[in-house]
Write a structure and sequence with these properties.
By secondary structure, this protein is mainly alpha-helical. It is built from nine helices and two strands.
Length: 231
């Protein structure tokens, strides 16, 4: 117990000295303030900004709904959202708990050291892909759409478009002899995005979709993803 306390104190001191905690606090607070301003403008009839609320000292305008929505979107943005809470579907909640439990097991936790971050990574991949279109589309069809529905649909639509572009880029990379994670940024410069999430994920998924399209496994959608079988 004493060793654990000393180790924790050492880690806390190191994060302070290296500026990690200061940077973490600053970036998260900036994100939260931005989200607070956004949801405050959406909630109020006259689109009151956070600056206006602070200037007039009208703190009552920032109610629990605004804070809750701002906090939720902030935690998603910084990959810190807790997917083990009761408001999640049982299957998702149990899977998230299992992943986080692995991170807390000595030695075995080194294989998956950041369980919550991993859960947020998987959630992001789902939310910005074609599957992310299902829930908001269903809500729109039922007439239960709101601003969160619009954001989810827009996020998934943009991500799906990104996958289509990545699939076509995968074909270009194959033709030029580059690996799937190579990206031409212009001016004759090519970089490797292998460790740059989510760009690496997009390019890898793009390669997979392009291969499926070329093999004829996507049917008429093959043209969309640049499959040679449909040229």
């Amino acid at each position: 117990m004493v060793k654990s306390t000393k180790c924790r104190s050492f880690v806390n001191a190191a994060t302070k000295l290296t500026g990690v905690r200061a940077q973490d606090t600053f970036t998260k607070s900036q994100m939260f303030m931005t989200e607070l301003d956004k949801h405050l403008r959406i909630k109020t009839k006259d689109s009151t900004s956070l600056a206006e609320v602070m200037r007039t000292n009208n703190i009552n305008a920032i109610d629990e709904d605004v804070i809750g929505l701002a906090l939720d979107s902030t935690m998603k943005s910084v990959f810190s959202k807790d997917y083990t809470t009761v408001d999640q579907m049982p299957a998702i909640r149990n899977a998230a708990k299992f992943v986080e439990s692995i991170s807390n097991i000595p030695v075995l936790g080194s294989v998956l050291p950041f369980g919550r971050f991993f859960n947020n990574t998987i959630a992001t991949v789902y939310q910005v892909g074609p599957l992310g279109l299902v829930a908001p589309t269903a809500a729109i069809m039922r007439g239960k759409a709101n601003i969160q529905t619009a954001e989810a649909f827009s996020r998934a639509a943009v991500g799906t478009t990104g996958l289509i572009i990545a699939a076509r880029m995968a074909q270009e990379n194959e033709d030029s002899g580059n690996t799937a994670t190579m990206l031409n940024v212009g001016g004759g410069t090519t970089i490797n995005t292998r460790n740059a999430f989510p760009m690496s994920e997009f390019l890898a998924m793009g390669k997979l979709l392009n291969q499926l399209a070329s093999q004829g496994n996507l049917g008429p959608l093959g043209n969309v993803f640049g499959g040679r079988a449909y040229y």
